[in-house]
Amino acid sequence: MDQNGLLRLGIFAAILAVMALWEAVAPYRPKEVVRRPMRWLTNFGLLLASAALARFTIGAAMIATAIWAQENGFGLNNLVGMPAVLGGIVTILVLDCAIYWQHRLAHMIPVLWRFHRVHHCDVEFDVTTAVRFHPFEIVASALYKSLFVLLIGADPWAVVIYESMLSGFALFNHGNVHLPQSLDRALRKLIVTPDMHRVHHSSVMDETNSNYGNILSVWDRLFVSYVDHTRTNDYDMQIGLEEFRDGKSQSLLGVLWLPFRQP
Ligand SMILES: [Zn+2]
Questions:
Q1: Where found (predicted)?
Q2: Which residues contact 85 (CB under 8 A, 6 or more apart)?
Q3: Were both Cys, which of 9, 26, 68, 254 would link to 248 (CB 3.0–4.6 Å)?
Q4: C-alpha 136 chain-centroid distance
Q5: DSSP-derived 3-state class of residue 22
Q6: Residue 78 Cα to ligand 1 middle (Å)
């Protein structure tokens, strides 16, 4: 593994450990619908399957694209010659907005929803939900993000920082944790908090189709998809998808096959 990969893995493992510890000490929703070992096997199994598929297909597509753009003077940043900090901020803003739209389109376009529903059929909501994605969705997302890296002419280091933020925020905002309400209110003016993102995992479809943001909460406000809270309450709300609550929608092999079957 190269230096960038090791750095990203280290940051990911550190944030995962902090969130898992936080959940163990002060879990918000104590109820367990599916036993934890089964969910961990499924969710971490998907993470390993995605890592393996990415390694043998796209590899480090985003970094390779950024290096190619830099060497060939391609993309906004390389044409204009932005200062490094400004180029980094533009990269984070553009990629976070692009991911917002990728996520929103994954809910709107049926074939994309088939893959994205693997993430949503988790009947619990905790830090492991953050890694529960079908490997094909992970690969498609990396190719999609690479297009924006090319257009921005993003610096390779800005890509490493953005990717670390993307996974770090996903681990944070899927945490089965609860911030004091005043802190949550202050933070969610700018970033996505666990209480804000939990609404997105509600079984009520118009709540599922809301709060698509990952890092910044501004996109949901700007593009009118922000929902402040669930109709029931955060503590008792039902998580997951109504039509995929059976055992074969929860096992590792079941979720790998989920995009290709009817409910
Ligand atoms: Zn979603």
A1: Endomembrane system
A2: none
A3: 254
A4: 14
A5: helix
A6: 33
Tell me the residue type at 244: F
What burial class does residue 53 get, using C-beta atoms within 10 Å of its C-beta: 0-12 exposed, 13-18 middle, 19+ buried?
A: middle
Distance 189 CA to ligand 1 centre (A): 20
Instruction: List the chain domain ranges.
Output: 3-26+36-260
pLDDT per position as a tens digit, 192-201: 999 999 999 9
Tell me, in angstroms, the distance from the centre of ligand 1 to residue 232's CA. 19
CA-to-CA distance for 106 and 108, rounded, in angstroms? 6
Which of the four pLDDT bands, split at 50, 70 and 90, describes residue 243? confident
Write out 170-239 in H/E/C secondary structure.
HHHHCCCCCCCHHHHHHHCCCECCHHHHHHHHECCHHHHCCCCCCCECHHHHHCCCCCCCCCCCCCCCCE
Number of other residues whose CB lies within 10 A of the CB of residue 3: 8
The amino acid that residue 238 corresponds to is Q
| Residue 64 CA, ligand 1 centroid: distance in Å | 28
CA 147 / ligand 1 centre spacing (Å)? 21
Average of per-residue pLDDT values in the chain: 91
